[in-house]
User: Fold this.
Amino acid sequence: MDWTKPHVQDAVKNQFGRLYGNFRNKCHQHYKKYGGGASGRANPPVHFLERRDDWVWICDNIFDNEDWKVSKYLYINFC
Assistant:
């Protein structure tokens, strides 16, 4: 496989973008399962048990971010 080809780079970026989106969505579902906020931050998913600082960062900077909430609302209600 030739990584210098634009179509290969596009395919890889697209695939990793989907994988990250799925991962983020699963994390958000887990966060919401505990009601969000402090309770959501206190109960990380299994793959974050050894990396609680990363989980708290994701909760604070993504799930509790107003831009995230607006974009999630727009996606759910208008897509």
